[in-house]
Write a structure and sequence with these properties.
Its main location: membrane. GO terms for molecular function: metal ion binding; metalloendopeptidase activity. This protein is of the alpha+beta class and about 750 residues long. The protein contains 14 helices and 34 strands. Strand 26 and strand 27 form a beta hairpin. Helix 4 crosses helix 6.
Length: about 750
């Protein structure tokens, strides 16, 4: 639709009349963004990281952030706030989008007049994500760290929840005139938009924390977007310990160098060291920052930039698609079909496992409210707004289950009923993963667990680290293809001691590089042998070095990132954290450190040799042993995985019974054979024993001598009554062999192997 078309002018006039009359928009399916019940003040507790930590209670209008649609416009899209006047985005169709906000400035409460813009009237801008385009989709796929993202068999159509923590830096607080209330409202509006944008991917935002740095920045914020990102992600590790969340996003009032407005690691979602991003508050309107934040979250979910011709869902004039590398408009709100395909692939690979966990209602900001789509304390279910609730199991008006229903959704819910305990809901994938099972009491699969850090993997060539098994072999093949292998240690020592762009142990924060000490050489730049002529990641070039070794020359192969390119890919070309660099030694922060794994040793001692240790430091027992200590018969699993049971429960019980009866079969068969032969020694012995028993002199009968017995008892050796020996199991690993009593069990009694 053209900006001067009659229909566009008519729509604007119609909306303007409504605003001048100060009437609420006729929003269908209006849904407040995690507000509270009507009539109660919203109380938000803020964590303020300054010289002293303190909580600030803010009283704000309740129920003032909305999602919805305009009646009569089936494709409409409304995100609105009425906290301080009316402001928000109203989209009536593909090319008819308007933004409304109060005309008054400063702290005035006179909101009787409002300004309304057609999106096309706003000034064009050319901003970019710090992630540069890959040459093609295949290149982007090659950037994923194969061992860090676990393959899954299928994508389940269960709801996804993103527990989001948003931080405003000190500069943003200053741009809001040091007004904590204005800063808070800015963050809430941004979160409201991000929630609506991500819902188009069936991902709902659960805001679990807001933080404002009122006195000084708690991590280094500079015009260098890359340095700011990694400093914030390092700070986030401590944040997660005190406030669990899925992703942390820093919103800064600073401008980054060049046209970059945001940065995030590819496929970093749910990872301890990379689940976050940084964005600048570059627009006067909060939806601009929200679109950038949604874009960076998209990168965390494995989405690359849309190639040319991919975005057909939205025209460029009203904003285009969210994953465009750079856009001429600040308000994209839809994801392309290309992005959706990449997201499905990311979930199939096991990425984003933390999004399957239901959020803790006690951590939500603001507090619980029926109709926000999140199941909170006092609610059986929550399917969103009453007018648009698609759930046949849930009563939307009071968030209770319908008669006969036990659940509404989740990996452990089917047709409004809970799946039985022991049904697998998340398969184990890779050396360092563990399976999870339905509990029978919750519709959700238990949180994802994996082997405790330090558990051996890859046939002893590596240690489990954060659920993955990083090895030099895997990293070389990821970089150079299947024919590549790790270079000799001499390559690492020679190349990485230079301290230049081609060989180093990381950056020094001043634009230079840190040379590797001899001990740390295998934790710097990755050095490989062989493989394809060119490295697989885009925007990289090969760096070949020749090293003399045993009278021969060896070609060591590394990669170099082209100048001026920021791929925001975690440690591209560097050895991954957790990689084994010696006996009981792993790479951490570009250093080769001694690691005793004492937590693992302590945990294994409590598992009695019949299990492994999971990421919660609990025993995960082998089939045939029961948690928590794996010292009693049971079905295996752990207190964290949900109760396990074989897929064929009846066959399992039958096998257990047979395992008790089998030791008796040799003796019974021998007795049958002996007794079945006339005149056999056993038969004679038995009959002789009978005669002996009847040869006693009767009290009143005649006296007679008993003949001497000619039958000697048959002595059965220990082999006839010994315990059955467990069967050899070539797949038995991780000390996960079943006990003797379960030696003859069907293979279904064992934990499922990955495909």
């Amino acid at each position: 639709m053209g900006r001067g078309s009659p229909r566009a002018r008519g729509s604007r006039a119609w909306l303007l009349v409504l605003l001048l009359l100060r009437l609420p928009l006729p929003v269908r399916g209006a849904e407040a963004f995690q507000g509270k019940h009507s009539g109660e003040p919203v109380t938000l507790h803020w964590v303020l990281d300054g010289r002293a930590r303190r909580a600030v209670t803010l009283e704000e209008p309740d129920h003032c952030h909305y999602h919805g649609r305009v009646r009569g416009f089936p494709d409409s899209w409304v995100v609105f706030s009425t906290c301080s006047g009316m402001r928000g985005l109203i989209t009536l169709g593909r090319n008819a989008s308007y933004y409304v906000h109060p005309r008054s400035a400063g702290d005035s409460e006179d909101f009787i007049t409002h300004r309304m813009f057609w999106i096309g009237q706003l000034l064009s801008w050319k901003r970019a994500c710090g992630h540069r385009d890959a040459r093609n989709k295949g290149d982007m796929a090659s950037l994923s760290r194969a061992t860090q993202i676990k393959e899954r068999r299928e994508v389940r159509r269960s709801p996804k929840f993103l527990e989001l923590y948003i931080v405003a830096d000190h500069t943003l607080f200053l741009t809001q005139h040091r007004n904590l209330n204005h800063t808070k409202q800015r963050l809430l509006e941004v979160a409201n938009y991000v929630d609506q944008i991500l819902r188009t991917l069936d991902i709902q935002v659960a805001l679990t924390g807001l933080e404002v740095w009122t006195e000084q920045d708690q991590s280094r914020v500079t015009p260098d977007a890359n340095a700011t990102l990694w400093a914030f992600l390092h700070w986030r590790r401590g944040l997660w310990a005190r406030r669990p969340h899925d992703s942390a996003q820093l919103l800064t009032g600073r401008a980054f160098q060049g046209a970059t407005v945001g940065l995030a690691p590819i496929e970093g979602m749910c990872r301890a060291e990379s689940s976050g991003g940084v964005s600048t508050d570059h627009s006067e309107l909060p939806i601009g920052a929200a679109a950038t934040m949604a874009h960076e979250i998209g990168h965390s979910l494995g989405l690359s930039h849309d190639p040319d011709g991919c975005c057909v869902e939205a025209a460029a004039e009203p904003g285009g698609c969210v994953m465009a590398a750079a856009t001429g408009r600040p308000f994209p709100r839809v994801f392309s079909a290309c992005s959706r395909r990449q997201l499905r692939a990311f979930f199939r690979k096991g990425g984003g496992a933390c999004l399957s966990n239901a959020p803790d209602s006690r951590l939500l900001v603001p507090r619980a409210r029926c109709g926000n789509g999140l199941v909170e304390d006092g609610e059986d279910c929550d399917c969103g707004a009453s007018q648009e609730c698609p759930d046949a199991c849930c009563l939307a008006h009071n968030c209770s289950l319908r008669a006969g229903a036990q659940c509404t959704h989740g990996d452990c819910c089917a047709r409004c009923l809970l799946k039985p305990a022991g049904v697998p809901c998340r398969r184990a994938v890779g050396d360092c993963d563990l399976p999870e099972f339905c509990t029978g009491a919750s519709p959700y699969c238990p949180p994802d667990i994996y082997l405790l850090d330090g558990s051996p993997c890859a046939s002893g060539r590596g240690y489990c680290w954060d659920g993955a098994c990083p090895t030099l072999e895997q990293q070389c093949q990821q970089l150079w293809g299947p024919g590549s292998s790790p270079a000799p240690e001499a390559c690492f020592q020679t190349v990485n001691s230079a301290g230049d762009a081609h060989g180093n142990c990381g950056e020094d924060g001043k634009g230079g590089f840190v040379p590797c000490a001899q001990r740390d050489a295998q934790c710097g730049k990755l050095q490989c042998l062989g493989g394809e002529p060119r490295p697989r990641p885009p925007h990289t070039v090969p760096v070949d070095s020749t090293v003399g070794l045993g009278g021969q020359e060896v070609t060591c192969r590394g990669v170099f990132l082209l100048p001026g390119v920021q791929l925001d890919v975690l440690n591209l070309g560097l050895v991954e954290p957790g990689t084994q660099c010696g006996p009981s030694m792993v790479c951490q922060d570009r250093r080769c450190r001694n690691t005793t794994f004492w937590e693992l040793e302590q945990c294994l001692a409590a598992c009695h040799g019949h299990g492994v240790c999971n990421s919660n430091q609990n025993c995960h027992c082998a089939p045939g042993w029961a948690p928590p200590s794996c010292d009693k018969p049971g079905f295996g699993g752990s207190v964290d995985s949900g109760p396990t049971q074989p897929e064929n429960h009846k066959a399992f019980l039958l096998a257990v019974i047979l395992s008790f009866l089998l030791p008796l079969l040799p003796g019974a068969g021998l007795a049958w054979c002996c007794c079945g032969q006339p005149g056999s020694r056993l038969q004679q012995w038995l009959w002789g024993s009978r005669r002996d028993a009847t040869c006693s002199r009767p009290k009143d009968g005649p006296n007679r001598d008993c003949p001497p017995s000619s039958v000697h008892p048959l002595e059965l050796g220990p082999a006839a009554t010994g315990e059955p020996r467990p069967l050899e199991d070539p797949d038995c690993g991780h000390n996960m062999c079943p006990p003797p009593i379960a030696a003859d069990l069907e293979s279904s009694a064992r934990a499922q192997e990955p495909p």
